[in-house]
Amino acid sequence: MKNLINKPVYVEWLDSLGCSPRWEIIDDDIEMGVVLCKTLGFLIKESEEYILIIPHLAEVDENRQGCGDMMICKKQIKKIYEISL
Prior knowledge:
Layout: E1 8-16, E2 34-46, E3 50-54, E4 56-60, E5 63-67, E6 70-73, E7 77-82
Antiparallel strand pairs: 1-2, 1-7, 2-3, 3-6, 4-5
């Protein structure tokens, strides 16, 4: 993936389902699962364990800025593609 740094990408990745908004009794009715997530953004950084995607970039006073950064563990990534603009 190193050749994709700073390029727009589409990523499909797995995340955990659920996070109770309140305290609940623990029993057999607890929902468990995995959801397929889809993310579009610029691949900004990569390590052996994760990638950093930022969907919003701006140049302000000659400084590069980003908003909405998201770290995705590589073990969770199912697909990653460069997007042509």
